[in-house]
Amino acid sequence: MGITEQDRGYLRQCIELAREALDAGDAPFGSVLVDSAGRIRYTDRNKVKTKADVTWHPEFTIVLWAQTHMTEEERATSTVYTSGEHCQMCSTAHGYAGLGRIVFASSTAQYMQWLGELGVGSRRVRSIPIKEVVPDLEVDGPDPELAAEVRKLHEKRFKAMVSATAEDISEEVEGGGGRLE
User: Fold this and answer.
1) 179 within a domain of the structure (yes/no)
2) 82: domain CATH number?
3) What is the pLDDT of residues 37-78, one digit of tens each?
4) Single pTM value for the model
5) What is the dihedral of CA 72, 76, 82, 84, to 10 degrees?
6) 40: helix, strand or coil
7) Is 47 a member of any domain?
8) Residue limits of the CMP/dCMP-type deaminase domain (predicted)?
9) Which of 23, 46, 67, 77 is most buried when burial is the number of CB atoms within 10 A of its CB?
């Protein structure tokens, strides 16, 4: 199908939600669930840190909400928009819940490339694309222009993490109580 201007409007909302997540101290991911009539039914942002729950991905909370608020047909004809391609946990839940199309601003491959370029170490769980988890699902993305915006959010996140780590080390050493070995 390809990404339309209408899709980009929803993706921009996802990026705003991702920005809210980052401002709150969470990873910058945001998602929007839209029904077949184009109505926004549910939105969320990453809250893994603020909720202290590793499953609080916005794509996962969309699944939980949709299962109790939408019929099977409504789920199948809906679209989930997201700032970043689903992880395998969210992809699996999406597939099992019978949700429809996914449109993402940035891909798993891009995210992994950015992590490498930013010097972030490898992840504990291997990242794989949605299509490897749910092969028959209609998926569109990434969008080059919007992916660049998402990258900036991740750069800001990881630069802040590096600064915080450097400050913690500096304070410990300068405070006289710590010693680097």
Assistant:
1) no
2) 3.40.140.10
3) 999 999 999 999 999 999 999 999 999 999 999 999 999 999
4) 0.88
5) 110
6) strand
7) yes
8) 5-126
9) 46
